[in-house]
Q: What sequence folds into this?
């Protein structure tokens, strides 16, 4: 009887540790998917040229188009609706919030070092670019981990050529 009880206890410990490992792997996968989506959104936003400024020989990012494109890419890659809420087929369960969207245009001297003390982020841009920070919450699968939230950060430059 004692051996049977020991086996049941050991199986419980083994299953709990296995589920904890799976939960950690899922959290890292969520972070990587969020980072890739944010990088794509920042890159897409950084490619939105201001055609009027280009006609005058200046490389500038069009603010309205850049923000719309960043939101469009983030929504498409993370499967979000127009309010930032996850769609039913999304792996996320909580809304994604863009907390920083900053356009660094030719009104600054390059190379320009962007610093944001609040989010402990720094990026050096060689030409006009975009800085994007989004708040993402990990949807816990088994509830073994404490809630995990990230401020995912990214930057992209206007590509030359």
A:
């Amino acid at each position: 009887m004692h051996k049977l009880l020991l086996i049941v206890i050991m199986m419980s410990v083994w299953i709990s540790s296995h589920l904890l490992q799976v939960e950690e792997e899922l959290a890292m996968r969520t972070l990587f998917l969020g980072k890739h989506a944010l990088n794509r959104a920042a890159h897409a936003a950084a490619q939105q040229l201001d055609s009027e400024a280009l006609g005058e020989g200046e490389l500038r990012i069009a603010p309205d188009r850049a923000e719309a494109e960043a939101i469009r890419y983030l929504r498409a890659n993370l499967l979000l609706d127009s309010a930032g809420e996850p769609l039913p087929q999304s792996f996320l369960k909580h809304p994604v919030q863009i907390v920083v969207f900053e356009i660094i245009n030719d009104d600054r001297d390059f190379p320009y070092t962007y610093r944001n003390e609040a989010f402990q982020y720094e990026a050096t841009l060689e030409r006009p670019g975009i800085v994007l920070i989004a708040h993402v919450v990990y949807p816990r699968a088994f509830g073994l981990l404490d809630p995990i939230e990230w401020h995912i950060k990214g930057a992209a430059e206007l590509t030359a050529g």
Notes: The longest strand covers residues 129-137. The chain has a mean pLDDT of 89. The radius of gyration is 21 Å. Residues 2-46 form the longest helix (45 residues).
